[in-house]
Design a protein that fits this description.
Elements (H helix, E strand, L loop, with lengths): L3 E16 L3 E8 L3 E8 L6 H6 L5 E9 L2 E11 L8 H20 L6 H14 L3 H15 L20 E5 L4 E3 L3 H4 L7 E5 H12 L12 H19 L7 H10 L5
Parallel strand pairs: 3-5
Antiparallel strand pairs: 1-2, 1-4, 2-3, 4-5, 6-7, 6-8
The structure holds zinc ion.
Length: 262
């Protein structure tokens, strides 16, 4: 017997894709069913206010119809519309970058845990906190670490001796720090080494231990912020074997605002 069901669940819209006339495909990160793909048919629906309330990254209670492994949207009640977002290209870009990463991880690991609370805290901070770009980088480091790609930073990944220098070599290809001993350095490719100040290593270590409600509003000094952002970008690209590009437009804008032209 075919199984059909009316379902009510809370969730965040992570992506909206238009197709044919007035139809949409929504990726919704739900509290109860993980990431689901759901259709909205504008042609069938006479409810224009429903169409207007569908926007990216909102938090809502969704009423869905489930039939033969497909979900379709009947209605939604917005809980948090993140209204500042629509005016703010920077925050919108940050969320669309992070949602791309989250969906990539979920594609490979559909049963990944804690994604929902992660997104709830992280997206809220990206929308409302003063430095959304830093928040996004802290978020992505925290997220991929929790999903099994934690950087090795407690000691040298080869000889396991503690590293006491103020500048630390991070070896991207092996995902961890290495010491200066020739035996440890001899197999590493220089192009794959990133230098990090001890303060940033300590910050990452601290970040990885904090619960979600506390970890996205850390302060970082200006010169360390640039280093941390560059590291976060290269680390995530290396781990995911993919070049994420959405945030690049923001670093171009940042330089432009400061009068740095390249
Ligand atoms: Zn070593």
């Amino acid at each position: 017997m075919a199984k059909e069901n009316h379902i009510t669940t809370k969730g965040f819209i992570l992506r909206i894709v238009n197709y044919r006339e007035n139809n949409l495909i929504l990726d919704i990160l739900t509290a109860d069913y993980g990431l689901i793909t759901c259709s909205y048919s504008g042609r069938k629906s006479k409810n224009n206010s429903l169409r207007r309330s569908i926007s990216p990254f909102i938090f809502a209670e969704f009423k869905l119809f489930y039939y033969r492994n497909r979900y379709s949207l009947n209605s939604l009640d917005i809980i948090e519309s993140f209204s500042p977002l629509m005016e703010d290209l920077e925050r919108l870009t940050c969320l669309s970058h992070l949602s791309e990463l989250v969906m990539d991880i979920l594609r490979h690991q559909p049963k990944a845990s804690n994604v929902y609370p992660f997104w709830a805290y992280s997206s809220y901070c990206i929308v409302y906190q003063k430095d959304p770009i830093l928040t996004t980088h802290l978020s992505q480091l925290k997220f991929i670490s929790d999903q099994g790609f934690s950087p090795w930073i407690e000691d040298c990944l080869i000889c396991h001796k503690p590293i006491k220098t103020n500048i630390v070599n991070f070896y991207l290809n092996r995902g961890g720090v290495i010491c200066d001993a020739p035996a440890c350095r001899k197999h590493t490719a220089e192009s794959s080494i990133v230098l990090l100040h001890r303060t940033n290593i300590d910050l990452i270590s601290y970040l990885l231990k904090l619960p979600y409600e506390k970890c996205f509003n850390l302060d970082v000094e200006h010169h360390l912020r640039a280093e941390l952002l560059a590291f976060s970008k290269r680390y995530v690209n290396t781990v995911m074997e993919k070049e994420y590009k959405k945030l690049d437009i923001l670093s171009t804008m940042e330089k432009f605002e400061k009068g740095i032209y390249e």
